[in-house]
Design brief:
Blueprint lengths: L11 E3 L9 E3 L6 E2 L6 E3 L4 E4 L7 E8 L5 H17 L3 E9 L1 H10 L6 E5 L3 H7 L6 H4 L2 H4 L4 H5 L2 E2 L2 E2 L2 E7 L1 E5 H6 L11 H13 L3 E3 L8 H7 L10 E2 L2 E2 L7 H11 L10 H8 L3 E6 L4 H7 L3 E4 L13 E9 L5 H14 L2 H11 L6 H4 L8 H9 L4 E2 L14 H9 L5 H19 L1
Parallel strand pairs: 6-7, 6-8, 13-16, 18-19
Antiparallel strand pairs: 1-2, 3-4, 4-5, 5-7, 8-18, 9-10, 11-18, 12-16, 12-17, 14-15
């Protein structure tokens, strides 16, 4: 039989490597190369990897992934995933990756036409996906406790709906701060590994500002991200939930979040979260503390700035750290073919294995939702993973993943600027936030 060539990597150079970290630049496609991950498998540049000798009755599996997942280290991980799975699974003839932007992928899934076998997607949209398409019931995978016990308990809870599991927990992140060590030291401040309390952190912002430096960027402008990060430090006191189509969060539970936001904003400039100019300003040594996420580290490393990574501190010493947790999953689509579904499940189980998620964490530098990976000695050698592992023990979820369709924290984008400009007091901002969340529930019906 004629030798079939396939897979991955539309060769592109992503200067920031991860979303929001820079611009993309193209380079000529590479010629086909033999995979070193497994024998009997070969690859080209069309994002498909195939067996050299396909088996009769085997399946061709399609996976929708993020645009970054065929690039750089993420693409290298997928090369290894596909080569390994094709070598070990005698029912799968090929795997094709289809890189798509987040919005395009969400729209395609919700349309319900031409669906893939597996797709990567935000945990925020989990319930939407469940309601829109026939997701594969993965309860039998999670019944294998030797495999599933490696996940964080909270991760399993938030892929569970109506008594079974419908997604594989993959990427986690906790919002963090990058700290310019030179500026903080030049301001006469110590550099603790983590700040013990919120007061200690805010005192440091003041000292940096008093020394003539810009302490941080705006935590209110441009996004819910800063306010949500602060709310994470009060997570134990915020009763996230829904009752009678209204949030169970009470206004008084958000007052301290807005009070803290106002304290931080005293020492901030007006540069919004997530903007290229904001990140560039930190890389140029102009800002002491940059609020961002682990995806920005590549850009910061490349700048040569002397930095480390810290979490949002607790309000009381010894309490849980703050920050906001965002997650991503792999989902399987029920094909209606029992044998095909079995292959899809096998691939999903492999993608959620200790080996696969550890490879992702070590090679890409992004934390995952397996607790056994995030406590692995090799993983903990990197600063980002150590901090993210600690952050996974605290903080607050962006929303009640898989149990709710309302992204309640999104209301902070509109409310927070009105608190810092004096339109609202912290108490009024808290009430306005609750009113806005309830309006989202009313709109949803």
């Amino acid at each position: 039989m004629k030798k079939i060539l396939s897979l991955t990597l539309a060769a592109m150079l992503l200067l920031g490597m991860l979303a929001g970290c820079g611009t993309e630049a193209e380079e000529p496609s590479a010629p086909p190369v033999e995979s070193s991950a497994a024998s009997g498998v070969s690859q080209t540049v069309d994002n498909t990897m195939s067996k050299e000798n396909p088996v009769e009755g085997g399946y061709d599996i399609t996976v929708w992934v993020g645009t970054d997942m065929v690039l750089e280290t993420q693409g290298e991980c997928w090369d290894e995933y596909m080569a390994t799975f094709l070598e070990e699974n005698d029912k799968c003839n090929s795997i094709t990756l289809v890189p798509m932007g987040d919005a395009e992928r969400l729209t395609g899934i919700m349309a319900g036409v031409g669906l893939p076998d597996i797709f990567f997607g935000s945990a925020r949209d989990a319930l939407k996906y469940y309601q829109a398409v026939d997701l594969l019931d993965l309860g039998d995978l999670f019944a294998d406790t030797e495999w599933s016990d490696g996940f964080y308990d909270s991760a399993i809870e938030h892929v569970t709906y109506d008594g079974s599991q419908y997604a594989i927990p993959l990427i986690s992140y906790v919002s963090i701060m990058y700290r310019n060590r030179e500026i903080v030291e030049a301001s006469g401040c110590e550099l603790p590994e983590q700040y013990a309390t919120m007061d200690e952190f805010i005192d440091t912002l003041k000292a940096v500002s008093d020394a003539g430096y810009v302490a941080t960027q705006s935590w209110a402008l441009g996004s819910y991200y800063g306010t949500g990060t602060i709310a994470g430090s009060d997570a134990a006191n915020i009763t996230v939930g829904i009752e009678n189509n209204k949030t169970t969060i009470q206004p008084e539970q958000l007052v301290r979040t807005f009070e803290t936001l106002m304290e931080i904003e005293q020492y901030a400039n007006n540069m919004p979260y997530g903007e290229d100019a904001t990140i560039e300003s930190f890389c140029a040594g102009e800002i002491a503390f940059l609020l961002d996420g682990p995806w920005t580290e590549y850009t910061i490393q490349a700048s040569g700035v002397d930095y480390d990574v810290i979490l949002m501190p607790p309000y009381e010493e010894g309490g849980p750290t703050g920050g906001m947790q965002g997650w991503d999953y792999y989902y399987g689509v029920d094909s209606g073919d029992e044998e095909r579904n079995a292959v899809i499940k096998d691939l999903l189980k492999y993608l959620g294995s200790f080996e696969a998620e550890k490879l992702w964490t070590v090679k890409v530098g992004r934390p995952t939702l397996r607790e056994d990976v995030m406590s692995d000695p090799e993983v903990l050698q990197t600063m980002m993973c150590r901090v993210q592992a600690l952050g996974n023990e605290g903080g607050i979820l962006q929303m009640d993943f898989f149990h709710d369709n309302v992204f309640w924290m999104s209301v902070f984008s509109d409310v927070a600027p009105l608190v810092i400009d004096g339109t609202y007091t912290p108490e009024e901002g808290a009430q306005a936030s609750i009113d806005a969340v309830n309006a989202l529930y009313a709109e949803q019906g």
